[in-house]
Design a protein that fits this description.
By secondary structure, the protein is mainly α. The protein is built from eight helices and four strands, in the order ααααβββααβαα. The radius of gyration is 18 Å and the shape is globular. The termini are far apart.
Length: about 230
């Protein structure tokens, strides 16, 4: 009997739930599916944790730091407008504290963790030493690449989901326009969080995280294209 790996099982579950979500939103126009977003984020977090190898103290410190910093940034943004711009969260993401859905902390972790894993894997592949080729770049250059490229990928992902999130009622911007300042703040905060990702010593080889990022990119691309 064939045994499936954790990566394969987690990927299959993520594909199933995102497919159900896509059909529920686009075909059945289900408000229940939209309100289940928090559950999907918690499930994704659970799968990422389950597939993480060697969940040491530094992994949990990274998780806690990203969630706390991300949530604090959102509370600051909602109450002051100093971060991201003038925006307010709707009811679709569930229970709030300080006018910010609690699950947003989980979303920050998912985005930073998955983008960090994806960029790390890509750099490992393209900088792998090959006989007759120049030596691999210095560790400091690789660190800079992971941090800057990871933050850029996180911002691009935010850019992808923003119009969809507004249409689904996750949050709303004052005046209806998404400010460039939002992406600037995302980049700066992501740089700090990617620095933690790069330098805290925990395993950076979670293949499911890359799969989940690709699944979510496809999910939001389809919604951005076909959602009315």
């Amino acid at each position: 009997m064939q045994r499936f790996t954790r990566n394969q099982l987690a990927t299959a579950i993520a594909v199933l739930f995102h497919t159900v979500g896509l059909l529920g939103i686009l075909v059945f126009k289900s408000d229940l599916i939209i309100r289940s977003t928090a559950f999907n984020l918690l499930l994704s977090y659970g799968l990422l944790t389950w597939t993480q190898q060697n969940r040491n103290l530094y992994f949990w410190l990274f998780t806690l730091a990203v969630m706390c910093i991300g949530f604090t940034a959102e509370v600051t943004g909602v109450h002051t407008g100093y971060l991201f711009g003038d925006y307010q969260y709707g009811k679709a993401l569930g229970v709030k504290w300080q006018q910010v859905p609690l699950v947003i902390a989980v979303n920050w972790f998912i985005v930073i963790y998955c983008c960090g894993m994806a960029v790390t894997a890509l750099l490992e592949r393209i900088t792998k030493p090959v006989q007759g080729m120049p030596a691999a770049p210095a560790p400091v250059l690789k660190a800079i690449s992971v941090i800057s490229d990871g933050a850029t990928l996180a911002v691009l992902f935010d850019w992808l989901i923003e119009p969809v999130a507004v249409k689904l009622g996750y949050w709303q911007w004052q005046g209806g326009q998404i400010p460039v300042y939002n992406y600037v703040c995302w980049f700066v905060i992501s740089l700090a969080l990617m620095t933690l990702f790069r330098f805290l010593p925990f395993d950076k080889g979670n293949k499911f995280a890359i799969n989940l990022l690709l699944i979510q990119i496809m999910f939001f691309l389809l919604l951005r294209t076909f959602l009315n």
